[in-house]
Amino acid sequence: MTQAALPAALWRDRLLASPLPWFLLAVVWTWPTALHPISAAPGSAHTDVWESLWTLWFVATKLVHGELPIHTGTLLDPNGSLWPSDPLGALLVMPITLTAGPAAAWSALVLLSMTFRGWIGSRIGALHAGEPGAPGWTSGAILALAPMALSAIHNGASEALGDTWVLAVVWMGLHWRGGGAWILGAATLLALCAWAHWYGGVGAFFAWGVLLLRRRLPSEARRAFVAAGVIGALLTLPVAWEAKNVSTAHDNVVGIKAPAELARLRRNIGPADPAAFVRPAPFRSPDFTKISRYGEDYWHCPYVGWVGIGLSLLSLRLRKGSRWAWALLPLGVVLAIGPVLTAGGSVVVLSGRRAIPLPYFLFERLPPFDSLSLLWKLGWITQIGVALCAAQGAAVVTAWVEARRGARAASGQAVTVAAVLLVALEAAALAPTRGLPDHVDASPPAPLVALAGEPAGTVMAWPLIGGLPTLYEQVTHGKTLAASLNFPASRGAWQVVAAVKNGREGTISVARRAGIRYVVLHLDAPTTADESKLSLSDWDHFPVLAEDRRLRVLKLW
Fold first, then answer.
1. Residue 13's pLDDT is what?
2. What is the mean pLDDT of residues 247-257?
3. Rounded to the nearest 10 degrees, what angle do helices 380-405 and 134-144 cross at?
4. Over 482-515, what HEC string results?
5. Count of alpha carbons within 13 angstroms of residue 179, beta-carbon side
6. Nearest to 84 by CA among 10, 5, 195
7. Rounded to whole angstroms, how far apart are CA atoms 2 and 367?
């Protein structure tokens, strides 16, 4: 039989089994990044995208020199311990980082994540619904274009892309085959979820528990699930222990790992507003344009989509098959909304200054829950449940269309096209994350290239605000930074800005003692939130090393 004569359904199933359509979808959704793979990077300039680019470079540079990437060494001032936010992702794209740069590596990581979400999402959707075609395409589209995942890309949250591994865990749970190889493979995937992203690890183990408790699971399979879960936990514990020790060390450079700080985050911007799961654009909660200190452009968006919800409700009419995926919907919501009810980034307070306690409050002091802060990310569990239930809903629609119009292949294709288009339309026009992700120009500015050729010395940035690409600039100039991961300046930088108004000679003396030799002025950055209270003209009496329309590099001494 010639290829042209193959049944249309066979071609449809082959296409569904291929990552190609999902890769093309990822390219379209992150456009025009593909036009400039070396210089453009998905994400917003006023988010963590610069830190993610720097982390990819930091991990690759450290490993190439035979060092573990858990201490900054001479990379930051002050120096200290650091647990990379996405060590697994950094390892995955390390060859690209070393050959084409961190921007290209980040773009590749984003494309791989979106492609894998769509591809593996389509597989688990087809498995759960018990048939290929529309169910698989529907779940794949919902997961590939999930607003939660798109907001992570926009936020530059490289570690959140690790949540994609949770889908592989679900796939493994639906593919129980028995034997030691299956147990070890499932355990390894569970550990990979935790190593990639602690929130993803929590989600993976909870999803595994739901898979374990399915009513129709054979007793032999149940024992295998328990064994895989125990081994996965044992594989996770050493890495988790080391990560917590590094992150809470007295010299850690992150600065937000204290228990009190984590508890505050779990009660303001960290948890999800329950309404955020279902309210479309322009709803944002919290709205960082109103509460951010430095004008950050973060999006916390657990929105699951009404196309998925509608199809999920239709799946209730499907009497065959398992409904275990429905358990994932409330589970993700309960975990994501945190220990007390919040809305708009603050606690909902009743009369008598009482908050409304929620289930997370009962175990937030237990590991690993005590180490989590941005709990809205746990809503990924709900998103997976919606995608799987929507796959069954698509099967219901397909059966209904076939019963009335016949022509099974044509009916299935029509439902497939309609479902995917509706999911894409909602993601593009109705979801709170419509229009995301943005992209940034990550090409090396000429002034920083000039700075790279200058003698050694510490570099500080001005104005002293968050959200500047200070860390990423180090990839180009290669010098020590008077900055930290979450704070714009070191103690030495504060001493320098305090001396600037006293004249050049006094500033140079202070700068020499602090070891700060260069200042990078960001000419296009807002100075209204600058903590140094200086103006651009206060730096006029220092010689200019190089400048363009965005940056001016000063050489203090």
1. 61
2. 76
3. 150
4. CCCCCCCCCHHHHHHHHHHCCCHHHHHHHHHHHC
5. 5
6. 195
7. 59
What's the rounded Cα separation, in Å, for the pair 59 and 77? 18
Residue pair 299/374 in contact (Cβ under 8 Å)? The answer is: no
**Hunting for tokens 């190609």 — which residue is that?**
20
The string of pLDDT tens digits covering residues 160-183 is: 998 999 999 999 999 988 889 999
| Neighbour count for residue 108 (Cβ, 10 Å) | 17
Q: pLDDT tens digit string along 325-373?
A: 999 999 999 999 999 999 999 999 987 778 999 999 999 999 899 999 9
Phi, psi of 265 (to 5 degrees): -65, -35
- Pair of tokens at residue 345: 């980034």
Place of tokens 């500015």: 445
pLDDT digits (tens, 9 = 90+) for 22-50: 999 999 999 989 889 889 999 998 899 99
Q: Is the peptide bond before 437 cis (omega within 30 degrees of 0)?
A: yes
Place of tokens 């140079």: 508
Cα 20 from Cα 485, distance rounded (Å)? 37
Contacts of 353 (CB under 8 A, 6+ apart): none
pTM value is 0.93
